[in-house]
Recover the amino acids of this structure.
């Protein structure tokens, strides 16, 4: 069973040793394929069973831990890149980018993985930018009550994406604000309007 195989990986992860001693490239490809299958279920609005939901988060935890040290193992790191894990995570984030919605804790785990796999890996940094991942990560750099610490993980991911990558740095500098979202209730109650003018945020007091 897939769930049994995932749990066996989790137990192996507790053993000391380098990444390649704990998990193989074949295992990584299997895990990515399984994650893609679960994502397709979510896309089709198929309700995940308790076991599948548990398996999803065990899988995400494993990827989170694995990718935090994968830079020490180029074979596994390149295998993750070639299997397009970053594109899968971006698609999962893009499918529901509204804070407070979706499966609790899902998005913060995906952001964590993107931040980890972009650490000192130029091809992944490039892949994430060209897939529109930087904009998505920036849109998640705010508080989300259903994804604790997603803001912090998003900031770390952006930092890793810009590390020794001038194209990503220039891309972020070229971005311009498009609209105002999540206006604080206090401002709305006071009748204060927030607008973007000439690329800058401006506040307008209520007319008397």
């Amino acid at each position: 069973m897939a769930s049994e195989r995932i749990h066996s990986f989790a137990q192996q992860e507790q053993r000391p040793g380098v990444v390649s001693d704990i998990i193989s490239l074949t295992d990584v490809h299997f895990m990515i394929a399984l994650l893609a299958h679960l994502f397709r279920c979510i896309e089709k609005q198929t309700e995940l069973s308790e076991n599948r939901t548990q398996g999803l988060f065990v899988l995400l935890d494993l990827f989170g831990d694995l990718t935090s040290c994968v830079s020490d193992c180029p074979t596994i790191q390149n295998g993750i890149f070639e299997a397009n894990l970053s594109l899968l995570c971006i698609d999962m984030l893009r499918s529901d980018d509204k804070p407070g919605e979706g499966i609790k804790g899902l998005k913060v785990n995906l952001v964590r993985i993107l931040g980890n796999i972009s650490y000192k890996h130029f091809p992944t940094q490039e892949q994430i930018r060209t897939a529109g991942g930087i904009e998505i990560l920036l849109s998640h750099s705010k508080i989300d009550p259903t994804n604790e610490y997603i803001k912090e993980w998003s900031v770390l991911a952006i930092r890793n994406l810009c590390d020794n990558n001038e194209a990503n740095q220039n891309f972020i500098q070229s971005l311009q604000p498009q609209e105002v979202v999540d206006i604080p209730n206090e401002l709305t109650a006071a009748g204060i309007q927030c607008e973007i003018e000439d690329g800058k945020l401006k506040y307008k007091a209520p007319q008397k």
About this structure: Confidence is low (pLDDT under 50) at residues 13-18. The longest strand covers residues 193-197. The CA atoms of residues 84 and 188 lie 43 Å apart.
